[in-house]
Amino acid sequence: MTADEANTFLSAAFVGTGRRSEVTLMEEGRAVMRLVADATHLRPGGYISGPTQMSLVDSAAYMAVMTYTGHEPMTVTSNLSINFLRPCIGDVVVADARVMKIGQALAVMDVDVRIEGADKPASHAVVTYALPRKPDGRAA
Amino acid sequence: MTADEANTFLSAAFVGTGRRSEVTLMEEGRAVMRLVADATHLRPGGYISGPTQMSLVDSAAYMAVMTYTGHEPMTVTSNLSINFLRPCIGDVVVADARVMKIGQALAVMDVDVRIEGADKPASHAVVTYALPRKPDGRAA
Amino acid sequence: MTADEANTFLSAAFVGTGRRSEVTLMEEGRAVMRLVADATHLRPGGYISGPTQMSLVDSAAYMAVMTYTGHEPMTVTSNLSINFLRPCIGDVVVADARVMKIGQALAVMDVDVRIEGADKPASHAVVTYALPRKPDGRAA
Amino acid sequence: MTADEANTFLSAAFVGTGRRSEVTLMEEGRAVMRLVADATHLRPGGYISGPTQMSLVDSAAYMAVMTYTGHEPMTVTSNLSINFLRPCIGDVVVADARVMKIGQALAVMDVDVRIEGADKPASHAVVTYALPRKPDGRAA
């Protein structure tokens, strides 16, 4: 699945919900997403809100799984743990998700979030997705 | 701070962002929030999305801290870890946050999310907030 | 499986490793373990060490799964997240594990650790175990 | 603090507890620890146990903090979250801890655990340490 295909998929899945994020890279085991923040994503002081970062993390982690599995509607988030490291102040925020493990039942991703071009991440997350079982016992 | 005062605070803080959640209970060490879901909160199949649950968890945890500290703008989420336990399908979702520890530097909350009236939680989270330091060395 | 059976199992599994913990309660969805601390479990100041608490948490969570599945050697820890809430000072430490969810692929437990008889927990953990797949597709 | 100084510190802190791990690298923001496993660290099948990995993770994360702060007895683990990714089978296990953030109140480390020489990590952890406050308000 290419980044263009991923964006087509997202536009269909989130039609009408004002999605602003887009996939900018899809390669085996890695996906990068980019969000141009608007007023709904900001907290006083111009901070990109925690929920905005968490939502982008979840989407990027899912896209990273899709680099292996393609679209699997039964793939669901099992755990998301995020550490907020420093203020996230800027107009464009990027989440870079890498697959640490993809097994039969679970995929585990490491995700960095940063303002586009920033040296240091604003937050770091580990996300676990539960994968659907194939009829023959193989994972998705 | 009462639930009414908490809602007044939230309305001011999130003016114009289409906030739909409200605080329904504030008591020492505990806060409950309630969200009437609309299309922006749903995934195909009528599931309340993970980001919607995470956002409600973060808000409820913050409100639980405020039962001790009042409004402290420098209180920031340090870690949020959520386990999605079962599908969250329904119109109204509730997050119930309880303070497990409030110390000088950190507050740690346990948060259950469930469809209003449901027996079992849809998700369970642990949230850590970093507290600002008072000039005299006491925590917020 | 009763607490006695659980202890017999543990003694066989950990023969020769100086195990000091024992199961004191097994009921559906819950297991309690108890450890009499010795010098190897302590840090300066008489604190029960973090690794000692984590080890007891992991064992108690596994025992809680066993109340549903019996002994399943292929059940493995997938994630353990622990928050240390307050100093754990005393001679006997207890971990109380409750199953929040047991599904086809995963079991998620909530575990409190406290000095025996203490009012407040010293630490709180959430533990996820991956369950082996049965040939017929059912979970363990 | 050099690796030799770190080992001298550890030997003094854990005298009589049969410590087998040693620090092999200390550089700003990073520490590596190495453990030669014995029977007490193994599970049936020759797996390095989860508690052994967690204990090594906690120590390596603490050492990484010490590359900034030196020895600070009041530095305590606040949260440890570990994902077990694949079996950890071998004689020597290594934990590589890197500081993602060191602030006034908290330090957050990313830790990989692997069998010495292995390509892929057996587990990955994120560890948060709470730092003591200096009388003048600066962090440790």
Task: Describe the protein in words.
Chains A, B, C, D: This is Thioesterase family protein. Chains A, B, C, D: It holds the Pfam family 4HBT. Chains A, B, C, D: Keywords: Hydrolase. 4 copies of one chain form a homotetramer. By secondary structure, chain A is of the alpha+beta class. The first copy, chain A, has a single domain (about 5-130), classed as Thiol Ester Dehydrase, Chain A, CATH 3.10.129.10. Chain A has helices at about 5-15, 50-70; strands spanning about 20-25, 30-35, 40-45, 45-50, 75-85, 90-100, 105-115, 125-130. In chain A, the strands form 2 sheets. A 6-stranded antiparallel sheet of chain A has the order 1-2-6-7-8-5. In chain A, strands 3-4 form a two-stranded antiparallel sheet. Chain A is globular, with a radius of gyration of 15 Å. The model of chain A has no long low-confidence stretch (mean pLDDT about 90). Chains A and B meet through helix 2 and strand 5 of A and helix 2 and strand 5 of B. Strand 5 of chain C pairs antiparallel with strand 5 of chain D.
Per CATH, the architecture of chain A is Roll
Spans where pLDDT lies below 50 across 5 or more residues of chain A: none
Indicate the CATH class of chain A.
Alpha Beta
Report the major sheet of chain A. Answer: 6 strands, antiparallel
Number of domains of chain A: 1
Question: Tell me, what's the shape of chain A?
Answer: globular
Mean pLDDT of chain A: 90
Class derived from helix and strand content of chain A: alpha+beta
Q: Which chain pair has the greatest contact?
A: A-B, 22 and 23 residues
Say which CATH homologous superfamily of chain A is assigned.
Hotdog Thioesterase
Distance between the termini of chain A: 15 Å
Domain Thioesterase (chains A, B, C, D): 45-118
Keywords (chains A, B, C, D): Hydrolase
GO molecular function, one term (chains A, B, C, D): fatty acyl-CoA hydrolase activity
Family (chains A, B, C, D): Belongs to the thioesterase PaaI family.
